[in-house]
Give the backbone structure.
Amino acid sequence: MSYVDEVFDLVVAKNPAQPEFHQAVKEVLESLRVVIEANEEQYRKDALLERLVTPERQLLFRVPWVDDKGQVQVNNGFRVQFNSAIGPYKGGLRLHPSVNLGIIKFLGFEQIFKNSLTGLPIGGGKGGSDFDPKGKSDREVMAFCQSFITELHKYIGADTDVPAGDIGTGAREIGYMYGQYKRLTGLYEGVLTGKGLSYGGSLARTEATGYGLLYLTEEMLKCNGKDIAGKIVAISGSGNVAIYAAQKAQQLGAKVVTVSDSTGWVYDPEGIDVDLLKEVKEVKRARLTEYAAARKSAEYHEKKNGEHGVWNIKCDIALPCATQNELDLEDAKALVANGCFAVAEGANMPTTMEATEYLQKNGVLFCPGKAANAGGVATSALEMSQNSERLSWTFEEVDSKLKGIMVNIFHNLDDAAKKYGMAGNYVAGANIAGFLKVADAMTAQGIV
Ligand code: NDP
Ligand code: 2IT
């Protein structure tokens, strides 16, 4: 059996009931096959792949907190410190009831390659909890965040592990966590990114993932003889990534006609009103029904099982920005049938493997999340730099660095795909380019 197949079987056997982790590993290992086979003896002897798929450290902890009725609640806390070959562990914290160890491991594994692609010195990690911030008061969210950091603070630090936002973790949660970290340690250091601007946050970090997604998409289209201006864009999600993806797409002259949340979706043929969306989602923390109620041109659809939702709408470009496995084979068929020619992932692993293959086989330009959404973590690394030098850069400075990083990422994966005989396969290109740097650093640092 080939080394790649052996390691994949090992991952399934050693990590039962973690389908998302298996899926992420399979996608990466499949596209590394050609690279591994060229140097199989050495990689096998060093157990490089076994080390790559095994987190350096996994922290599982209890998070007790008191709700507004005086009742004690208990959640599960997670931090997976996956790989520190090229820098301190870096990656977000997801707060969502669906969070479990397998989800955090898939996200942490993806983060290794994503962070490598940014060209910046950051290793891979991810964390979170099955706590659901929806419907909780600010005080309850603060109580949870303080308890979460009371345990986690022992294992993180500006030069060891630097968490940030993800689903359910935004500026409010990062603020509460930062305050508690500072209180416990006495350190005013860049231990978290996505901080508020008044206490060490970076300009453009809020916008970075969505803007970066569009900078990369623009470059991918340009290199394939296409232009984003005048195109119809379908977006899923209506959180941090979706909102700023919509804003930048519109600035580049495209028309964004959809957004969604976990209970429904909106079709707005006149183009999403981003200011209204921000008011509904960022300020009121309300449902999309409120967007539709305030906007004549918008149709609201309740989410129903088995329906294609936003992917049924005719579009040129699709940007999934909500969550994993939200775009399946049926959705991919609907997109192709409607003439969609490009898909770039704002979320982590939103497209199933079958859907990805179908899109690629049908000539759709497809950029995976670990490249397309790397602008968020890249700008987090820029926030770390600013914290280290105790300076803040202007919005334009950060934004132009972000753009340069995204353009560079696209060319790195394009070049890697071409070099290994898979021109146009940006999934393979991203995995190979991300892997080679980490593998080189792991090899140089010996058996650790
Ligand atoms: P937010 O919490 O701001 O928004 C998440 C959005 O996705 C919301 O609209 C939410 O709807 C929807 N959503 C979440 N879970 C589900 C679900 N199970 N089913 C349907 N809809 C769902 O998160 P972000 O925008 O930050 O994150 C979105 C994606 O982007 C995630 O995959 C994340 O890992 C990825 N990402 C985020 C980065 C960042 O910097 N924030 C960087 C790189 C990737 P509702 O409000 O109803 O829950
Ligand atoms: O998935 C991701 O890259 C993020 N949630 C952002 C991580 C970060 O450290 O900014």
User: Anything to note?
Assistant: The two ends are 26 Å apart (CA to CA). The mean pLDDT is 98. The longest strand covers residues 72-83.
